[in-house]
Amino acid sequence: MSADVVDFRMPSLGADMEAGTLVEWLVKPADKVKRGDIVAVVETQKGAIEVEVFEAGEVAEILVEPGARVPVGTPLARIRTSTMAEAAGERPRASPEIVAAPPGALSRPQSLSAAPAGVPRREGGRVLASPAARELARSVGVDLAAVVGSGPDGAIVREDVLRSRATSEVKKPLGLDLGVMREAIAAAMARSKREIPHYYLQHQFDVTAIETWLARTNGDRPPAERLLFAALAIKAVALAVKRFPQFNGFWREGRFEPSAAIHVGTAIAIRGGGLAAPALHDVDRLSLDELMARLRDLVQRMRAGRIRSSEIAYATITVSSLGERGVEALFGIIYPPQVALVGFGTILRRPWLVGEDVQARSVLTVTLAADHRVSDGHAGALFLAEIGKLLQEPESL
Amino acid sequence: MNLAPDALKAPAGGGGLIETTYREAVREAIREAMLRDERVFMMGEDVGRYGGCYAVSKGLLAEFGPDRIRDTPLSESGFTGAGIGAAMAGLRPIVELMTVNFSLLALDQILNTAATIRHMSGNQFGVPLVIRMATGAGRQLAAQHSHSLEGWYAHIPGIKVLAPATLEDARGMLWTALLDPDPVLIFENVMLYNMTGQLSAAAGAVDIDKAAVRRAGEDITLITYGGSLWKTLAAATALESENIRAEVIDLRSLRPLDDDTILRSVRKTRRALIVDEGWRSGSLAAEICARIVEGAFFELDAPVRRVCSEEVPIPYARHLEEAAIPQTSKIVAAVKTVFGRS
Known about the structure:
The complex is a heterodimer. By secondary structure, chain A is of the alpha+beta class. Chain A has three domains: 5-111, CATH 2.40.50.100; 131-175, Dihydrolipoamide Transferase (Irregular), CATH 4.10.320; 179-396, Chloramphenicol Acetyltransferase. Chain A has ten helices and 20 strands. In chain A, strand 19 and strand 20 (357-371) form a beta hairpin. In chain A, helix 7 (229-243) crosses helix 8 (288-303) and helix 7 crosses helix 10 (377-391). The model of chain A is unreliable at 84-123 and 170-174 (pLDDT under 50). Helices cover 35% and strands 21% of the residues of chain B. Chain B folds into two domains: 13-200, Rossmann fold (3-Layer(aba) Sandwich); 212-338, Rossmann fold, CATH 3.40.50.920. Chain B is of the alpha/beta class. Chains A and B meet through helix 3 of A and loops of B.
């Protein structure tokens, strides 16, 4: 294995993803690529996702043809990096480990060097499958590497081969498959309710000042540049988690991993019944206008069924809003492995005490669903209050 | 004595069901054998005046007299040897050993004499002897009376080893065993003696070389015998709620093993779990596991598993005794792991 050629692999676009279908290559051999370029489109349960490359260099070889369904971690293409210096500091790769293999160890085929999530492999790269499953896979021509196991120790059993054959025989139209998306939502939400001890808090805030500020700010802007309340809400959450990091990150392997980056997943309803929560990256570092532009772009692409790999996989906290549906408060289900979800209801005109006077004010209900393994109600209450405080000063968001 | 097909037929009798116990079924089997063949006699410790330590032979001394129901000294090697001699000389003895633990005192006679004479005499002599003994834990009789060593005997060529688990087999295996030209050991699990149930009034001899499918199922084969059969059947019922349809095989004969029945079932279900009150290491369960892997490897959809006794001397304390041996809950849990569930 040459040291300056690296694999571009099927990415994991979420904790529940085990395999994806390569839909389209946007590059060909000898094309130059740089970090962040979109090089391929991958079909997952969440729809067609544009996959970015993390290396700079030149496409050396395409390994997987469009239409092929491969497990997470399978090399899709090989990238010849421009220099080792450029490659250094990028994401860790499997190659150094292979170079460091003890003398005498046979070098393993490259495709076996990584253990992709979800596909059971023993050390040494062997797929765990029952003898009956192997026999069946051989006779019907199913590649066990593409089958997800449900047996003991996650081994592939006969049933899994039958199921994988059934799904691969049904030719699915590419793009967003709402049925599959519903299954993915079902799996993620069921896992969440099964594993995460949720607690819920609710707080009401007078947001009349924000509405006034928004109306004034948007007054002289063309419609395409106007700010929506959602952008302020997302920004307020991002700034609040900077002070309350126990709501931003992941619960993995029995412990909380806080995230330094703040990527806010934004629940977006899809016409026809789907739902996704792609991430807006580094929200705390975006101005309101930048955030609004990103949000518009994201919603449009999401509804068109095209989102990027980094958007789908890396949210550190989720914001959900049912504002346009008129719901006063929503109590969310945390998207695992995240640990918190902030819900914004509709802004309603309500009688509200201002000093000793009852006035008609705009009132917003903000809720928090949080993972009790990580945080407690006391911290949650302070976190909600912080969001409310930030919303009172829209000009500082 | 030849094993003519007619010999297996039940003696003429009325139909209908009678309520009985495993103990009474064994006693009826002994009575029938005594009545049908005057060469049959029984001997053992406390089988006469005391009526048997598990009350199996109660009343038989009065009915058949001291020549045919013989109390022996506490000398397993001695009276087992006497039984071997009587069998070689033309009688049809039934030797009762109080428990399998005590049978070890007679192991030399069983292994070195009974099992070898046909071989060593160039087929000039056989030993048509039946040895009955109690086996198994559950009666708080502690570590010198509670073990399940039938798997050891199943290791020995030259003998047959039976484990009646049902009333029909308790009633019917003895006569067929007495017809056999070679030694047959019958292991009666102590927890079964009080088991009640319905038995045909016409019940009689049964075959002793076939395993029986006691419950049909599609998803996993549970292989067991003796006292564990009922726990395994209870587990199979409990597993219905997990949507697991278990087939339950009662081995009935531990030697020879009915490979055909076992493998046919495993080829259908593709999964197997063996429940054996013996200890796991070097057990009969291990032998069955090996045969399944040898005979149906490519059909298997999961590793073969075993539920055996913990590798300790069987404890006296009730909760520890219960914890040491296979139980329905352990079987259910083990089956679930075969399906990757916990």
